[in-house]
Request: fold
Amino acid sequence: MPEPIEDFYAVIPAGGIGSRLWPLSRADAPKFLHDLTGSGQTLLRDTWDRLAPLSGPDRIAVVTGRAHRAAVERELPELADLNVILESEPRDSAAAIGLAAAILSRREPEVIIGSFAADHVIRGTRTFEFAVQQAVAVAREGYICTIGIPPTEPSVGFGYIKKGGELPVDGAPEAASVERFVEKPDLETAREYYGDRSYMWNAGMFISRADVLLGEIAENQPELYAGLMELAEVWDDRDARGPVVDRVWPTLTKIAIDYAVAEPAAEKGRLAVIPGHFDWDDVGDFASLAKLNSGGRKENLAILGANARVLADASSGIVVSQTARVISVIGVKDIVIVDTADALLVTTSEHAQRVKGVVDALKLTGRGDVL
Amino acid sequence: MPEPIEDFYAVIPAGGIGSRLWPLSRADAPKFLHDLTGSGQTLLRDTWDRLAPLSGPDRIAVVTGRAHRAAVERELPELADLNVILESEPRDSAAAIGLAAAILSRREPEVIIGSFAADHVIRGTRTFEFAVQQAVAVAREGYICTIGIPPTEPSVGFGYIKKGGELPVDGAPEAASVERFVEKPDLETAREYYGDRSYMWNAGMFISRADVLLGEIAENQPELYAGLMELAEVWDDRDARGPVVDRVWPTLTKIAIDYAVAEPAAEKGRLAVIPGHFDWDDVGDFASLAKLNSGGRKENLAILGANARVLADASSGIVVSQTARVISVIGVKDIVIVDTADALLVTTSEHAQRVKGVVDALKLTGRGDVL
Reply:
């Protein structure tokens, strides 16, 4: 175990539902509250356990919605009240991470924050820690530092980070500047990037001084910045906070941190990257989930669910069982079966991305009770 | 509506569970107790409604297991006590139909019985009635008469009846003798039969004088015959029946009526056939069920279940819903999804025949609670 990094504070935005994993993920049971790897604990808990050695357990803030507060606190009994940042309603990632930065910066002006999604899967503790340690060193130099994932396939599901020249930073032998941020590419482009090796996946990990991050928001999204400052000013004053939150929160600009911070910072040469040589998966859909749980063998049928009773014959793909029902699967390939108390999904890996469309259709057709 | 046929008695063996339709059909909810066509009533009730105009409602006997007595009587409130023939345990069709023949023959020596499965689907009332009327006329001449179904495809799922020469019988213009009975053929042979047109599907319908049927059993299965006679002798004597049933029932030879009666009768020129020009389906597996409910269009997704909540996209096959769950189906072709309270089946039309194997596997692995 490493010593905690003195000036480092971890931030976990725990907001997204993960609609493409419906009916497993849903409003009252978002993706980060599930065990998607059979580890026996939730992704949120995994994230906490990964960060606590780096920051210390008293220096992890969780940004989450009111609806999930109880569940989050159940998962993380060590989480101090001070470290729970409640969102009145979701306003996207720049608001969530920016608010954490603003609050922590008032408390501790020199603090370096690192934000890490609550619902990604990472394997390789030591490599992860080494990457974060390097990123913190780079952040101390005033950069906004990302951790990019060297691609293991030409994925069209992620944004890419194009690495620029090396950055000479003590304690960060792998540091490089970022030339630019790229949106999810088409397959041909993804293949190019994959061959090039100077492109890395954007895994949504940002490490920087809180004040540097806020400066970037101030430059690019001045209205959002003003709102965040107003909120931060009263945040630690219980009596004053309520009315300000009620007034300001609904006005916060809804924008992803990639657009509000990372892209413009890259253009101005203020973005750096450290390669993350650990296994990383955002478990974006059931195809990813199947892959993650099939031991890498495409002909396997992965089974997820502590009490799963599955009888399979000549089948591959994944069965997610949240009920005690016997599930019999015969002669279906690359199948995705998700069995929950009130909803059942049957599709294939190939169509896994279309699950989000179902969620939209259920809303539109008045069947939102199962979302 | 025709006048009931005076000397005719209908017999409905309601025994088989229909394992290939698991988890829809099961020990406590056999196939004949399901609505498989969306008609709003069970196959057993459909069978009754089809036969009652031909025999009169007081002249239909149902042979069923003790476990299903209550359900059968709920479905058929008109069914008189006298017409319930309870099996202590299943001993196959020769015993079931033979016992009905023996009991009815004692009550009414000249009676003509017609046995019709409780769980087949027939469409075309007038054609069905015409076939039965002809078959009864043939039976009066001392033949055992079947109703054969002219094939609409080269099926390997049924046995075949090879038609011989015409039989000159008054009131039965389509009567023919049967040259032989054939087991389920391979595909090549089925194609030959299909082209030949003198082969018909064996739909398990037998119409004959009760004493003629019993004579055939006596010749071919003398031990079974002796047991049936012993049972019939005491059947209508409530006090005497019990001990005889307990002693004799377990000794009855287990054999299908096809082997005990139809095949040997055909060899001896005692079997006749009337073509049934109605739509007939034994709904042998989920592939048949899908076809039956898809309006004949292979690209359709058939949905069965009064309270089904199915959201489908680019899918075909069948969804059978017995729960109130939302079922979402995306991009799966020829799929079979059967959703019940305690068991879920996912397979394809192609593998529908393998469902029986699952039932066997569940028994072997101690999960018989869902059978």
Observations:
- The mean pLDDT of chain B is 94.
